[in-house]
Amino acid sequence: MEEMIRIENLTKKFGDVTVLDNINLSLKKGKIYGFIGRNGSGKTVLFKLIIGYLRPTGGRVTVGGEEIGKDQDFADDIGIIIENPGFLGRYTGFQNLKYLADIRNVIGRERIRESMEKVGLDPDNRKKVGKYSLGMRQRLGIAQAIMEDPEILILDEPMNSLDSQGVEDVRKILLQLKDEGKTILLSSHHREDIEILCDCVYEMERGRCKEYR
After folding, report:
1. What is residue 129's DSSP assignment?
2. What is the pLDDT of residues 3-32, one digit of tens each?
3. Which residues contact 115 (CB under 8 A, 6 or more apart)?
């Protein structure tokens, strides 16, 4: 099975504090990987290192055969939810996604509409994002993550602020994307999400990452 992400001897320190300590992982195409651990255990830092938002203190991250920080500054072909999705409050959901899509200019309006509808949002709704509920913002963040059809998704607590129907919708989307061969990294405080969705689960504690199941 094709390897999408390789993490070798990865260490990250902030001053004297070691947040990640010599982590090694090989993540394959078409699987959902869960990451669990208490707040501050390093899940978000690991995700940011994979994307290229942070640079490692030691070791390296390779995504799609390209070393991050050497062959390319940021990982390509990745959809991301890290912390709270940030949008422009005075624009509609569609306008926000169109603005972001225009940066890379690889998809058109129809693809944006499809992504919004997939997560249960109406692309013709004129409500400004500043008036969105937290759950609607989270749905919009997921639409942004999937709209360019990336090969890898990195989703840090994607179920935050979603009601039970929203959680069910997102689970179905992620399982469908897995069936399409996408590689998904997921953190969640909801054990049920991890049990239902993930092929492999890693637990992070005190800077180390070990296979949980």
Report:
1. G
2. 999 999 999 999 999 999 999 999 999 999
3. 97, 143, 144, 146, 147
DSSP category for residue 181: T
Q: Which domains does the chain have, with CATH numbers?
A: 1-77+151-213 (3.40.50.300), 87-149 (no CATH)
pLDDT in tens, 78-98: 999 987 778 999 999 999 999
- Of residues 178, 98, 165, the one with CA closest to residue 136: 165
Return d(Cα 46, Cα 103) in angstroms, integer.
26
Tokens representing residue 206 in the block: 């005190």
Q: In angstroms, rounded to a whole number, what is the distance separating the alpha carbons of residues 81 and 157?
A: 8
CB atoms within 10 A of CB 169: 17
Q: How many Cα atoms are found within 13 Å in the side-chain-facing hemisphere of 171?
A: 17
Strand partners, 61: 7
- Determine the residue type at 197: L
